[in-house]
Design a protein that fits this description.
Layout (H helix, E strand, L loop, with lengths): L5 H15 L4 E6 L6 H11 L5 E6 L10 H11 L12 H10 L11 H15 L5 E6 L6 H12 L6 E7 L10 E3 L5 H11 L5 H11 L3 H6 L15 H14 L3 H13 L4 H11 L4 H8 L3 E3 L4 E3 L2 H9 L3 H13 L5 H10 L6 H16 L3 H13 L4 H17 L3 H11 L6 H17 L3 H16 L3 H18 L3 H5 L8 E6 L2 E6 L4
Parallel strand pairs: 1-4, 1-5, 2-3, 3-4
Antiparallel strand pairs: 6-7, 8-9
Helix pairs in contact: 1-2, 3-6, 4-5, 5-6, 10-14, 11-12, 11-13, 11-14, 11-15, 12-15, 15-16, 16-17, 17-18, 18-19, 19-20, 19-21, 20-21, 21-22, 22-23
């Protein structure tokens, strides 16, 4: 039962009813942690009938570096396995792109992200031929950026297919172009009903305190009665911090075996029960710790999966553990991931603090595989971590420049600019400084700083011209184009490259004349 969400439930119900009639729509549900987003997605799934196809996925913080992991999870929900998808019904280039990003074939060239988004839309439309389709995408703030871009592309272009896509995210993860549905805190009456129905034996003084501390947050109303509120931090902390503190209290009361089992499940991210059991066996930990954690209502366990009751529980488990506790868990997960080189590389990296060229090389390889799948954000993260593990100056410079270029290609210009400022202090070779200048120019252009973009382009062109005049040509032409956009041709006219001649047309007494410079 949902409390205090009649308006929001009605809006979603209207979308579903329209989809039955062949109309499509998408909404992004936005609220703070514990605000009831997942409950509303669950309710939407309950409102569908037997002729609906319901597909679900959720972002996981630890998987945000793995390109298209979210999209693959969603599509697997369509038929139990990606091999069951009707990809042959799609146009050839779209089918090939989708097969590559979900791991059904090896990409022989970089994948066009536009093509992946188009293929996602086409596949959903094909699935909707058998009846309306509901896609729910939870925790968008942790969804890998490649999946988020593909699903946003599809959501913005829905028409008459009979598809509903519901996103759920925290306030900071707004999807441009997708209509928003903001969940306010529950009012006093709804909060009181939720608390009374779930905790009927609560003392009056405790009930009043929970209502006051929870401030209309549904998760806090359900969880605070389990916790020792007197032991929580005092002061105006955000609710997620208070809830995390309470979860850490509960975790600390468990046995060492149960804490290790929870940590293995939190680090594994996919909720694969068999893999967690393999890790516990490798560590010599009693698997009965899983049942203890389930009895404490921190996780739910099925025959194949472990699910945390809320992402905040997972975060409290993982971030509440020390590095000494996490390191052997990641090492065991890496050993159990021989068939998944990307997961293996990240688990090895998470289990080390000092330089390690072998792990850095594995991460760099993972980065190039991500680029092949158009996962530029994931590639940037892998290259940045690889650079941090590298001692060789030449290799570190190469990896940090790749991270900057891929962050810019992903559209994460703020991160690219941060990395670029750090790289500017490195002893870069002239061609490396030119590459950095090119990316800085792109960032400046995208951020509306046309003058800064022009200056960076000319600086980059001059760096390259000093060592390779032929390669400098395209840079000078791009810089000249930026001068034309600014309406300021002077920098282009006065720019010089060894072995080049400059020619400029300028107004002259109402006529246009071409003046060739006398310099080389």
């Amino acid at each position: 039962m949902l409390y205090g969400r009649a308006h929001e439930e009605q809006r979603i119900s209207t979308l579903l009813n329209r989809a039955v009639d062949g109309q499509s729509g998408a909404v992004e549900i936005v609220a703070d942690a514990g605000g009831g987003k997942t409950a509303l997605l669950d309710r939407a799934a309950e409102l569908t009938g037997g002729d609906w196809r319901v597909m679900r996925c959720a972002g996981v913080e630890g998987d945000s570096e793995l390109p298209f992991s979210g999209l693959q999870e969603l599509l697997m929900a369509a038929g139990g396995h990606v091999d069951a998808l009707p990809l042959d019904a799609l146009p050839g280039p779209q089918a090939d792109a989708l097969r590559a990003v979900i791991g059904l074939r090896v990409a022989t060239e970089p994948i066009d992200r536009f093509l992946v988004g188009l293929a996602t839309l086409s596949l959903l439309a094909e699935l909707a031929e058998g009846g309306p389709v509901l896609c729910t995408v939870d925790d968008v703030q942790w969804l890998d950026s490649a999946s988020a871009q593909a699903l946003r592309f599809a959501a913005r272009r829905l028409g008459a297919e009979g598809i509903v896509i519901l996103f759920a995210s925290r306030a900071e993860a707004v999807l441009p172009g997708v209509p928003g549905l903001h969940l306010p805190p529950l009012d006093t009456a709804a909060s009181a009903r939720l608390l009374a129905d779930n905790w009927p034996g609560l003392r009056r003084d405790m009930r009043e305190r929970v209502l006051r501390e929870a401030a209309g947050n549904p998760l806090a109303l359900l969880e605070f009665p389990r916790m020792d509120l007197d032991a929580l931090p005092v002061g105006p902390l955000p609710l997620p911090h208070l809830l995390s503190s309470g979860y850490r209290q509960q975790i600390a009361e468990l046995s060492p075996a149960s804490r290790t089992a929870l940590l293995a499940a939190a680090a594994e991210t996919a909720g694969d029960l068999r893999l967690v059991l393999r890790v516990l066996d490798a560590l010599g930990v009693d698997p009965a710790g899983i049942a203890e954690a389930e009895a404490a209502s921190l996780i739910d366990v099925t025959a194949q999966a472990i699910r945390f009751r809320h992402p905040l529980v997972r975060a409290a488990v993982y971030h509440g553990a020390s590095f000494a506790e996490r390191q052997p868990v990641h090492a065991a997960l890496a050993a159990a991931s021989d068939d998944d080189p990307d997961h293996r590389a990240w688990h090895l990296a998470a289990g080390t603090v000092g330089p390690d060229e072998e792990i850095a090389a594995l991460l760099e390889s993972a980065a190039f595989r991500a680029v092949d799948r158009a996962g530029y954000s994931a590639a940037a993260a892998a290259a940045e971590r690889a650079a941090a593990l590298t001692t060789d100056l030449e290799s570190r410079n190469r990896r940090i420049l790749l991270a900057i270029e891929w962050a810019a290609a992903a559209g994460t210009y703020h991160r690219a600019a941060e990395l670029g400022r750090s790289a500017g202090q490195l002893p870069l070779a002239p061609d490396e400084r030119a590459r950095l200048g090119w990316v800085k120019a792109l960032i400046a252009y995208e951020q509306g700083d046309l003058r800064g973009s022009q200056d960076s382009l000319f600086a980059a062109a001059e760096e390259v011209a000093a060592i390779d005049p032929e390669r400098a040509g395209p840079l000078f032409m791009e810089a000249a184009r930026s001068s034309w956009v600014l309406g300021d041709p002077a920098p282009a006219y006065h720019a010089r490259a060894p072995g080049w001649q400059s020619c400029a047309c300028r107004p002259n007494s109402g006529r246009r004349s071409c003046a060739r410079s006398t310099e080389p």
